[in-house]
Design goal:
By secondary structure, this protein is mostly beta strands. It is about 10% helix and about 40% strand.
Amino acid sequence: MQKKLIYIFLAVLVVIIIGVVVGDILSSRPDKRGDNPFALKVDDYKEVDESDILYKETKNFKLDDREYRAMDIQDDELFVVSDNFLQIVSTAGQPISSFDLMGSPTAVLVDQEEVFIGFQNYVSVFSRNGEQLREFSPLNDSAVITNMALVGKDLFVADAGNRQVMRYSKDGTLLGSFGGKREADDLHGFIIPSANFDLVNNDDELWVVNPGMHTLENYTSDGDLRGFWESISMTIEGFSGCCNPARIAVLPGGQFVTSEKGIVRVKIHDQSGKFAGVVAAPDKFDEDGHAPDISVSDDGIIYALDFDRNVIRIFEKK
């Protein structure tokens, strides 16, 4: 009798255990789960206080249906590269000229006389009427050129694939390269999880984004670190995600304009990194869209190339 009771007890226990396991499995189905109290509520960080928004979108104009890659501004003209194509439009949106390219561009930089166009692993230089003037020797097959900056007489080229900055003379002579800060107590160098690696001339000084560290770093022409600022935060004041800021530009006076991916937004930071305000809040862009490329005119108007909508959007200070 006692043995029979034991068998009954064990059978009931097995039924209970099976019921608990099945119930747990069913409750774990996506349509049965409750809210995760520890889930990151990204939407909370997309809201921006109106008092922080310093700019307003005054106009925009639609581009042709192409896959756009980058933009630069010079003398009230916008130079926009797309797959195998460069077009020049006025800041009012009127077509000026265009020409085909023998390759798929990744970056564009314009000075007073020449147009520098970066391709995956080399740079070509054109006149403003589309004549190819010279071509730099190609980098290795791992190279991914993402942007360029002229500082003094030198051209600096950001290579995300090899995680380095290349220094050239304007005629294409390679003068050197560097991979970011690599001292004994800080071995990281440039951390580049994706093809978002930007650099800019700010008051004749080279500033390079270290996107994996959420820092802007100031280097000499020889690649020595002069200083940096860092801002890591999910809030509007800082940068978050794997690689931000994705794009940078400079306002007259030296403030940085930053463009972010993930939570797409455009902001202003002063030269020390202090948050100054917002140009365009996340609700201006497609959800989970691309960080827009940004260019700044001599009078401080900000032009954003919205890759998701093929639109150039113009922001002026309120």
